[in-house]
Amino acid sequence: MSGLFITFEGGEGAGKTTVLQQVKEKFEQDGMQVIATREPGGSVIAEKVRDVILDPLHTEMDARTEALLYAAARRQHLVETVIPHVKKGGIVLCDRFVDSSLVYQGVARGIGIDEVLQLNLFATEGMMPDLTLYFDVKPEVGLARIAEHKGREFNRLDQESIAFHHKVRKAYLHLQEREPKRIHTIDASEQIGDVLTKSLQEIQAFMEKKTT
Ligand SMILES: Nc1ncnc2c1ncn2[C@@H]1O[C@H](COP(=O)(O)OP(=O)(O)O)[C@@H](O)[C@H]1O
Ligand SMILES: [Mg+2]
């Protein structure tokens, strides 16, 4: 039996990383084979590419260079980490995937969704997540959460204007309309416990549908 590839998407401070960890803990307690990984990153090579992408000093980064680096990191991560675990029948919870590139590089940076999709389909050989949870929250709320939480790393994306983050949110909502079967919206403005409950419900509903 093949496993499950679930991605967590949304703007900065939406709660992706926090909820993903909690979902992982819950699944582990239930005795499931689960791994948590992140985009870009998740393997030694991909983590190095991540450092190049997110370094706050790299202000001269060209938009297409950035898109190519993300696709390269994604490829390596998919081959080394995601595919082997899914093949063993496990669950992979991945913090960001192709949708992030479509939104950030395709729309917010203006390269175009379809150009970035083509590049990514080359990188992934067409593999898409089984299920994607989109954590929807106003950028002002997400950014305020990050500002409050001093422990988290400050990266290049945090320096973007609020207009950039609004474009990101609009693009995610557009993607969700394009692919309503795969992408499920979670209201991430709610309390963390409620966001977790809804996320677990979405995943469980998907698993039940898959086995019937
Ligand atoms: N629903 C929520 N309500 C209040 N605070 C939250 C909520 N979700 C996440 N946070 C807090 O906001 C900050 C950013 O969360 P994080 O999971 O890192 O977001 P992301 O990975 O989407 O950027 C963390 O300090 C986290 O504890
Ligand atoms: Mg995060």
Please provide a brief summary of the model.
This protein is an alpha/beta fold and 212 residues long. 57% of the residues lie in helices and 13% in strands.
Taking pLDDT < 50 over at least 5 consecutive residues as the criterion, the unreliable ranges are none
Give the tally of structural domains.
Answer: 1
| End-to-end separation | 14 Å
Bound molecule types: adenosine-5'-diphosphate, magnesium ion
Biggest β-sheet description: 5 strands, parallel
Q: β content, as a range? A: 5-15%
Q: Approximately how much helix is present in the residues? A: 55-70%
Query: Element order, helices and strands?
Result: EHEHHEHHEHHEH
Describe this structure in words.
The relative contact order is 0.19. This protein is globular. It has one domain (4-211): 3-Layer(aba) Sandwich (Rossmann fold). Strands 2-3-1-4-5 form a five-stranded parallel β-sheet, with helices on both faces. The model has no long low-confidence stretch (mean pLDDT 93). The chain is an alpha/beta fold and 212 residues long. The longest helix is centred in the middle third of the chain and has 25 residues, at 63-87. The protein has helices at residues 16-29, 44-54, 63-87, 98-108, 113-124, 139-148, 162-178, 192-211, and strands spanning 4-10, 34-38, 91-95, 131-136, 183-187. The site of magnesium ion has 3 residues, from α1.
Any key phrases for this structure?
single chain; 212 residues; alpha/beta; Rossmann fold; five-stranded parallel sheet; binds magnesium ion
